Amino acid sequence: MKRVLITGAAGFLGSHLCDRFINEGFHVIGMDNFITGDKKNIAHLNNHPNFEFIEHDVTEFIKIEGDLDYILHFASPASPIDYLKIPIQTLKVGSLGTHNLLGLAKDKNARILIASTSEVYGDPLVHPQTEDYYGNVNTIGPRGVYDEAKRFQESITMAYHRFHGLETRIVRIFNTYGPRMRLNDGRVIPAFMGQALRGEDLTIFGDGSQTRSFCYVDDQVEGIYRLLFSDYAYPVNIGNPHEISIKEFAEEIMKLTATHQKVVYKDLPVDDPMQRQPDISLAKKVLNWQPNIGREEGMKLTFEYFKTLSQDELYKSEH
Ligand code: NAD
Ligand code: UDP
């Protein structure tokens, strides 16, 4: 049985990856320190014979007994308010954490895939974003802690690939959503859905003309899975190119949730990208991948999940 280590296992994407690899017949070792994750996301795997969990901060030396065939490094705060609240941890997990995991991969002769992000393109001047665009990032801005950690992560991964001949894969993930997102993580989908469920007005930052392109989690996991087993070592965008402005998106959510609230406008966060859409030509070519789940269907599935949360969870405020 092949063995895979998944960091960030108690988070949104990490927990879905654990499910996928278990279903594909792997032995999965999940690792997390719960800084932004939740035990609940992997509770259903607790007694699974092919799942084990190690509570550990990946910025500290990592020791794994036995063989490892694959590593997926997904540990990192991922929402703007998380990484603004824990900026140093964000820089450390992208840099020191990635270094530890590359060292582990080298030691175990394992293939490693690292989770990069569309944020490496910053506030992009090229649209849609292709993998050969170098990006427009404000190094010293508040978002820089995440963007630069991820840019460093890509650089050190390519250095291990070139210098040590390590088998590496880099996925540049564009805004992904679905069940198990944290209601209070501040990202736009949980924010709007929480507001709709609590009967509050929807908060649009700025004038709402900024755009995003939202990918359903199952499509994202499929893209990541295909990339891991491809022979392509350079970064690949995985996301859904169907772009929408935040203002139109708020209207869609109000329709879906049948709420009668209004929208209220708040300040746009510093360095909030004005536009974002993945060019997925490369993923189509090298992975034969494209998303299959449209926003209407994906948002319905996500809303069903948020509706199952208890009143306590719905009203719990962390920020
Ligand atoms: P998440 O916050 O739900 O999950 C991240 C997990 O990593 C959490 O469980 C957290 O506790 C864990 N973690 C953080 N620092 C750690 C450390 N030092 N040691 C061990 N565990 C640690 O976020 P997510 O949306 O699931 O994102 C997962 C990965 O995908 C991140 O690397 C993120 O940058 C990347 N990504 C996500 C998106 C998206 O739209 N969801 C977009 C681009 C990139
Ligand atoms: N946003 C918003 N209202 C909210 C939360 C977010 O208008 O309550 C905006 C945010 O400013 C950004 C977009 O929605 O322009 C997507 O934000 P998110 O945090 O989900 O992702 P990211 O900015 O990292 O793409």
TrEMBL record:
<comment type="pathway">
    <text>Nucleotide-sugar biosynthesis; UDP-alpha-D-xylose biosynthesis; UDP-alpha-D-xylose from UDP-alpha-D-glucuronate: step 1/1.</text>
</comment>
<dbReference type="Pfam" id="PF16363">
    <property type="entry name" value="GDP_Man_Dehyd"/>
</dbReference>
<keyword id="KW-0456">Lyase</keyword>
<keyword id="KW-0472">Membrane</keyword>
<keyword id="KW-0812">Transmembrane</keyword>
<keyword id="KW-1133">Transmembrane helix</keyword>
<comment type="similarity">
    <text>Belongs to the NAD(P)-dependent epimerase/dehydratase family. UDP-glucuronic acid decarboxylase subfamily.</text>
</comment>
<keyword id="KW-0333">Golgi apparatus</keyword>
<protein>
    <recommendedName>
        <fullName>UDP-glucuronate decarboxylase</fullName>
        <ecNumber>4.1.1.35</ecNumber>
    </recommendedName>
</protein>
<keyword id="KW-0210">Decarboxylase</keyword>
<feature type="domain" description="NAD(P)-binding">
    <location>
        <begin position="5"/>
        <end position="300"/>
    </location>
</feature>
<dbReference type="InterPro" id="IPR036291">
    <property type="entry name" value="NAD(P)-bd_dom_sf"/>
</dbReference>
<dbReference type="InterPro" id="IPR016040">
    <property type="entry name" value="NAD(P)-bd_dom"/>
</dbReference>
<dbReference type="InterPro" id="IPR044516">
    <property type="entry name" value="UXS-like"/>
</dbReference>
<keyword id="KW-0735">Signal-anchor</keyword>
<keyword id="KW-0520">NAD</keyword>
